[in-house]
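Retro notes (design track)

What went well: tokenization of the new backbones is finally stable.
What didn't: we kept losing track of which sequence belonged to which structure.
Fix going forward: every design gets posted as structure first, then sequence, in one message. First example under the new rule, 303 residues:
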């Protein structure tokens, strides 16, 4: 039985929003309105569910995810910061930076025109002592605004609160729910250059739509919106973005999934990651006091 994390004091919550001890006892905000259900863990500031009314779940979280203070949650929308994957320097560990291991603070929860808008924040003080903060020991403020409605909008603003120019990478590592990734097509990347993390690194150029026939792990240089066509569920998922110059697409396929204890051989077909990001030479550079916002809107429509 995991220890239950004491629930923080929070400002008044609007109707349809609760703060509870979720999986592993970790604090979770649960949203239930006429438009959608949704879920955000303070751990990682991580959305772990969004189901708009009349649809099957759109955001996928692994049935084997670990919900533990020192682990990253497998699934949902992990926020990768201040680096992506192995980062741009050899000593950058853990993978994807430290934000997904940190506990965010809820600043505000409000009803807004029928949607629920949540604001969470993470600062260097909150993250102090986490693995990786020794590699990137700089003052910062991340503000994550999550809006649950008939669409899901996640806007992450990074502010350089230090006295020096800073650079970082970031991603919204979204796990999207699909019937079977082997039948999925992705459009919106035609003509985009990409690095292949599985085959010959490249750079390559995407020709036409992207389909999946094996492990896929690509970093696209692209500011374009992406559509995931899912014939199995009879729907299209659109990922619309502002402030993002990279898109990562990832499917671990069977062998890699089987080797990951928090994913497993039986679940990988039901997800595909589409990750709006700013990575490698598209990493963000901020002057002291400056900020950058990446806004991503997730939507679903029947096809
Ligand atoms: O296992 P994680 O650290 O969560 O990373 C999961 C995946 O994230 C991204 O999609 C990367 O491009 C992949 O290379 C990586 O395997």
């Amino acid at each position: 039985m995991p220890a239950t994390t004491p629930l923080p004091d929070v400002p008044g919550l609007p109707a349809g929003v609760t703060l509870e001890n979720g999986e592993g006892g970790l604090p979770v905000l649960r949203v239930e309105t006429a438009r959608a259900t949704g879920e955000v863990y303070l751990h990682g500031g991580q959305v772990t569910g969004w189901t708009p009314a009349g649809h099957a779940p759109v955001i996928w979280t692994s049935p084997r995810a670990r919900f533990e203070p020192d682990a990253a949650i497998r699934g949902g929308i992990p926020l990768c910061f201040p680096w992506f994957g192995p980062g741009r320097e050899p000593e950058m560990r853990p993978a994807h930076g430290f934000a997904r291991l940190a506990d965010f603070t809820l600043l505000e929860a409000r009803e807004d025109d029928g949607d629920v808008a949540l604001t969470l924040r993470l600062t260097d003080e909150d993250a102090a002592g986490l693995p990786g903060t020794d590699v990137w020991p700089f003052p910062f403020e991340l503000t994550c605004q999550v809006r649950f409605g008939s669409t899901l909008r996640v806007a992450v603003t990074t502010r350089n609160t230090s006295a020096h120019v800073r650079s970082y990478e970031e991603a919204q590592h979204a796990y999207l729910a699909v019937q079977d990734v082997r039948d999925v097509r992705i459009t919106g990347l035609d003509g985009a250059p990409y690095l292949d993390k599985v085959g010959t690194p490249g750079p390559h150029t995407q020709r036409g739509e992207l389909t999946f026939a094996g492990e896929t792990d690509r970093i696209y240089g692209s500011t374009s919106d992406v559509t995931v066509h899912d014939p199995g569920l009879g729907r299209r998922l659109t990922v619309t973005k502002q402030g993002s110059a990279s898109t990562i697409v990832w499917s671990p396929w069977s062998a890699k999934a089987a080797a990951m204890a928090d994913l497993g051989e039986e679940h990988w077909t039901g997800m595909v990651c589409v990750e709006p990001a700013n990575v490698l030479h598209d990493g963000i550079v901020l002057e002291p006091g400056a900020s950058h916002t990446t806004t991503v809107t997730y939507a679903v429509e029947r096809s």
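Added context from the reviewer: The first helix runs from residue 124 to 127.
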